[in-house]
């Protein structure tokens, strides 16, 4: 049975535990999904286990007001390369997903209309691309999807329809984490750390985007560039202990093992470990800060609207000009102003102000999946006179 996640966008994940091969689905030709994935992921050599294959259905129900004009998905030949920060599918779909259907309609992708590769400033992989045969056209992956309607036209039809109440995007996904695995020889679990297996694939239109640092005898992930291969699979603060069942202990060995695995199979298995207590997380963070220089950090790009206001602010500071207010107050009629004053007076009389209200207890929320770091720590609550005197019970929860 599919697992459902409670998010703004409903998500159903179908895994191979339910059937022998989850990529053999009704509505598709035999082997079609496999071929569509191989058109954008360089799988070769060792056969990919069926347990690594998934199908994801992301369902976005249109709101009654302020319906999104676009889905915010950037793709190349069906491979999602970026999910826009304002997309309703942010946190549900991810780079590396291969689009198969829209509202149960199989879709194809016009190569001439494919979105150009997004330049995120990520690190370039040295992985070799498969050799092309003579006369083969460049950048036109083979596909069994010819004859299906174009993805953009199907999406446009759904978004402009007055009867459609939702849009469902069905994608093929490759598993990037395996909880149960055989530990290779020479790899020993460290006290205070948790071990895991990460899977890194060679995508045609995604770069590697990995920066590592040597901290003592371990190679630790320093950062990963957004919308790249390793940003999907790895987390900041994870130490890479083994690559494809070979234990590793230095940067050059890790790099070479990853390149060899991708050149052979198009994917690699990484045994990683990460701290599971706050003191050790702080220790690893300090080790990374010592090992890396400030100039070695990646250029993180701001959203377009935020960058606009920042540029205006910097320019105003240079020239000594006063910035235009971001808050645009609309002119109110005298009758409207009196109505507002009347409501304020009524609230004061009832001693109820519904506009501002503070919660008496705090709530813990999960860390978004895009914040791929294993070094987050829980901060203690702020100290007050009541907490120090032992008289405050508002933070206590059963």
TrEMBL record:
Region Disordered: list its residue ranges.
120-145, 331-353
Q: Where is the PDZ domain?
A: 59-131
InterPro entries membership = PDZ, PDZ_sf, T15H9.4-like
Q: Which SMART domains match?
A: PDZ
Ranges in a coiled coil: none
Q: Transmembrane ranges?
A: none
- The biased composition feature labelled Basic and acidic residues covers 128-141, 331-343
Which protein, by its recorded name, is this?
Answer: PDZ domain-containing protein
Starting at the broadest rank, the lineage of the source organism is:
Eukaryota, Metazoa, Ecdysozoa, Nematoda, Chromadorea
């Amino acid at each position: 049975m599919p697992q459902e996640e409670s998010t703004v966008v409903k998500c159903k994940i179908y895994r191979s535990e339910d059937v022998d091969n989850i990529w053999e689905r009704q509505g598709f030709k035999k082997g079609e999904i496999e071929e569509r994935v191989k058109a954008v992921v360089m799988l070769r050599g060792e056969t990919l286990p069926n347990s690594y294959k998934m199908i994801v259905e992301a369902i976005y129900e249109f709101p009654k007001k302020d319906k999104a004009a676009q889905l915010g998905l950037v793709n190349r030949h069906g491979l999602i390369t970026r999910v826009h920060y304002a997309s309703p599918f942010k946190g549900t779909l991810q780079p590396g997903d291969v689009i198969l259907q829209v509202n149960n309609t199989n879709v194809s992708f016009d190569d001439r209309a494919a979105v150009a590769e997004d330049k995120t400033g990520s690190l370039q992989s040295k992985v070799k691309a498969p050799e092309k045969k003579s006369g083969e056209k460049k950048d036109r992956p083979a596909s069994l999807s010819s004859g299906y309607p174009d993805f953009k036209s199907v999406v446009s039809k759904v978004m402009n329809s007055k009867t459609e109440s939702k849009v469902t995007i069905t994608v093929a996904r490759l598993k990037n984490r395996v909880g149960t695995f055989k530990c290779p020889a020479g790899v020993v679990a460290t006290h205070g750390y948790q071990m895991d297996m990460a899977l890194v694939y060679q995508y045609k239109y995604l770069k590697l985007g990995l920066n590592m640092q040597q901290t003592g005898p371990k190679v630790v992930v320093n950062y990963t560039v957004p919308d790249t291969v390793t940003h999907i699979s790895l987390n900041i603060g994870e130490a890479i202990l083994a690559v494809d069942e070979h234990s590793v202990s230095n940067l050059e060995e890790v790099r070479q093992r990853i390149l060899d695995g991708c050149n052979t199979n198009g994917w690699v298995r990484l045994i990683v470990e990460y701290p599971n207590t706050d003191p050790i997380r702080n220790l690893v963070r300090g080790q990374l800060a010592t090992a890396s220089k400030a100039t070695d950090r990646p250029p993180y790009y701001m959203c377009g609207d935020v960058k606009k206001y920042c540029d205006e602010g910097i320019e105003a500071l240079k020239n000594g000009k006063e910035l235009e207010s971001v808050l645009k107050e609309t002119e109110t009629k005298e009758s409207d102003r009196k109505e507002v004053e009347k409501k304020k007076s009524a609230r004061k009389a009832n001693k109820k102000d519904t506009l501002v209200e503070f919660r008496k207890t705090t709530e813990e929320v999960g860390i978004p999946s895009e914040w791929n770091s294993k070094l987050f720590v829980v901060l203690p609550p702020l100290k007050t006179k009541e907490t120090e005197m032992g008289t405050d019970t508002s933070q206590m929860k059963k």
